[in-house]
Structure formats: C-alpha cells, structure tokens
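User: I'm new to structure prediction. If I give you an amino acid sequence, what do you actually give back? Let's try with this one:
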Amino acid sequence: MEKGEFVSLLGPSGCGKTTTLQMIAGFVDVTKGEIWLDGQDITHAKPNTRGLGIVFQSYALFPHMTVLDNVSFGLEMRRVPKQERLERVREILNMVHLSGYEDRFPRELSGGQRQRVALARALVIKPPVLLLDEPLSNLDAKLREEMQFELRRIQKTLGTTTIMVTHDQSEALSISDRVVVMESGKITQTDTPYALYENPQTEFISTFVGKTNLLSAVIRRDGQSLLAQFEGFELPLEIAPSSPTGKAVLSLRPEKIKLTEPGKGHVDGTVTQVFFLGDRWLYHLETPLGELLVADSNTGHANIQEGNRFGLTWAGQSMRLLQDATEQQHD
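Assistant: Good question. You get back a string of structure tokens that encode the predicted 3D arrangement of the chain. For your 331 residues, that looks like this:
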C-alpha cells in the first residue's frame, strides 16, 4: 500500500479478511510472511507499540466516559500534555461534525454519532495506518451510505493510509482507491474499483462484485481477431489477441445489454420477471442462452411487462473472458 491510500479487503464471511486485519494490528500471530510499516518490520511487534488506529465493528466505546474522554483516551496513554490533548480532540471532533457533543455519553448518541466518535478516537493519535473492521455494518441502509462518503471525506482530508474490511461490494467500490478481493484465504484480484468491476478475472469475482450474466461460449481465432461462438450466432471479442481459444465462460453485465425489437438483436427473449429499484429496472428474460438479467435506467417511461418479447443486443467489448473458466486449446 502507498501512503495515503484507501484500500478495502472485500470478500464473503470466512475468507480471511478480518484475520488479515488482525495480523496487521498484532492481535493474531503471522504464520508465514512479514508485515512492514514505513520501512520497519513489525511482524512480531506488540500491538500497543505499532501505533495503529483501529475502529471495531462494535465501536468499543467506553460507556462510562464522555465523548471528550473517549476521544482523548489514546492521547492520555501517550502522555500528551493536557492543553495539546484538548486542542487535538476539539479539532478532530469538528472534523467529524461532533462539536458540541463533548459532554455526552455514548448512550446519548445515535449509531452514526457513535461511529464518528470511534473514528475520531482512532484518528486523534495521528496513526500511520487506520484499520477499519466493518465500521458501518451496524448502521441502517440510509445512514450507512451517508457515512461511506463521510468516512472518505475525513480520510482524504487527513491523508491517513487506511485499510477497511467489508463484505459489502458497493461500499468497497464507492470509496476505495483499490480493492483487494479475497476468497478462501487467498487474494484473487487487486484493482481499482472501476477496473475490478469492468474486468473481473474470475467467475467468483464477476458474480460477487456486482451482478452479471455468465455466458458459455467457444472462443475461436479468425486471423488476428477472436470470435465468441454461441448457439446460432457469433460475435467479435474485443480482448487481448493472445487470449486462449476453446470452451470458455464470458461475463456480461446486465447494464451492457440493450433491448430492441424482436429479431433485431443477437437473441430474442421473453420477460419473466420485473423488479423496480427506484433508479433502474431489472428484467429477467428467458432466452436460448438461458435466463439473462437486463438492467435499464428509470427514465420515467412506462415499465416493461412480464410476457413482453424483445431482442437483446450488446457490444463485443462488453463481454469479459473469465480466466478460471476457460478450457484452453492450442491453435
């Protein structure tokens, strides 16, 4: 990780992301490898000597202490003079929009306010790295979204290097510089949010990070180009010419598919289910390629009904070849 970077460890429960975070914090022993921080090997350093800021899922605030005392606790342990303590606490509370709450106790605060107190307590010690263990998971959906952007704003303002653990892909994509996807104790892909979404490397990533359609095809070479053969038609593939040929699985995001008149797309389909999500519609269509999911922006027009028949079309560049689902053949 680079200094000032915001990196999310993303994956399902049990994939190892929290264990990784706890090893960085020093709460879990490293079984193999090393952890270096700013040129120093901290693999076996005690947790209290690493100087890291940590925000737990439960916030872990002291219930008998006021907001001011909770936030200043770390500074007291570091023997920071009282006047400097007060100045730094007031500065950080202002940054997290909690000025005027100094004398309140945790029980008198909302979930979002308690989360910001925990964040202020972790940041006030000016840690080289901030560790966040699913810090927003206890908040309701609307507040959680608001706090995502608030968290990113604070992190950017301070420039604190941050590692966040989450199983929420939209959370990871919206506020991270890079996302590390983990599966069964291993890193499967590390990329910027846009690159990760647009170019998933495996079937797991394509389905875990957003929604997708998985299309079975045969990849064949046609001169310098590659073609994807489906039942009844084929499409040019805009991928690396050196990609393997043979049986493969392609990822096609729902929003890349456009509905048109029957007979004018690559394949026809019948609408079987319709879901309204506010800003967009989701349609399930039964097609010769199997069931396909199509996402369409809500433009205010009348929605499509179950039983309607459409043609489905998409660009060759929209299809992504999944590396772990290809049976390679040699030309």
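You can read the tokens as a compact description of the fold. Here is one thing that stands out. The chain has a mean pLDDT of 91.
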